[in-house]
Amino acid sequence: MRPPYFAALHVRVLFLCFAVPFLIFAWWWATPHLIVPVSQMTQSVSGSLVVIDPGHGGADPGAVGQSGLLEKDVVLWVANSLEPLLNRVAVYTRKVRDGDYDLAQNARNPSGSRKTADLRERVTQANEVDADLYISLHANSFPSPRWSGAQTFYYPGKEEGRRLAESIQRRLVEAFPENRRTARPGEYFVLRETEMPAVVVEIGFLSNPQEEELLATPDHQRKLADAIYRGIVDFLAHSPASAQREARAVSVEPVEKTLLTPETAADEFLLYFGSAQETSAALAAVAATYPRELVDAPIEQRISHVLRSLIAGPNQGSSLLPTLPRETKLLKVDVTKGQAIIDLSREVRTRFWGGSRSEELLINSLVRTVGQFAQVQEVILLVEGRGEGTLAGHVDIGAVFPVPRAPTRP
Fold it and tell me: Whole-prediction pTM value?
């Protein structure tokens, strides 16, 4: 007969053999957020390099919400949530900034304005490390507080950028079903100059009080980061053939969905204002009338009157929205050999509400409004006599803007 302590030892051994593995399994099952599942998808994306670019920084706050929330802060918080998600599936990451500073101070090409040097350095960092993807994070703003929702942009004609934008936008809509926005083209400096698939993700509207409040919360930031992460992984993991099938199923919002072109008489001209539709960022044209003394005046005088009317904004009570700050002053108009040179005061920058799509609409409204004159084929934009940099950190105003042939004036 065995001594009692042998029986007790036998029970302990059985407990260790069965109970401990069970407890380990129970712990694993109860904490799935600590375990990154290994799958064919994660294996196919591992080793990729993604550059994450939180926009603005330092003296450049970007857009500012009504409560004082700064774009430069919230996009860095989202970037800090996005980076570890990608790292967990063995995707290498590089953030162009991890604190409150811009990149102009240490830019390797400091020519031009500080903002131009900053943007150029962001692109240089992405190109020199031969990144697989470039993700630029921004927050939007617009005069209407109704606008809300995250939206992704790609450079026109860059097919892989379009596919990446649609992949991320699909996940953003999945995470936030009330968001009806779609991926759109955007002629932004960083998208034009980067050599890899690149997108700008506008994570929401600081001009919408409810969305600004959400953007300030860590939970919402993490949810945005998770949606962006899933869109990136989808893009990296899918083959070109499956990507083409997905692209055919995506409905991309037309660039000028709400652009109106009313008929005008000889003494009338068109003004292109922002559309007030909540889900469409486009322009709408309305007709206005010249004063009698300007009907046959030189073209510079007529364009000056038209631009001052554009700066003044839509009539009170209109559903349309201004595209330029009303404090902006028109300094000079010169039309030479098909080019209209428009010089505006610094208020077009300092009083602008910000946001990449708002900046693009501002420039488009200027180009279309001036481009209705048959003598104008291109528009050059100056601010206080200088044609460099950006208005709010997105669109390169040093470019020459061709006029899309819209209704023309003699």
Answer: 0.72
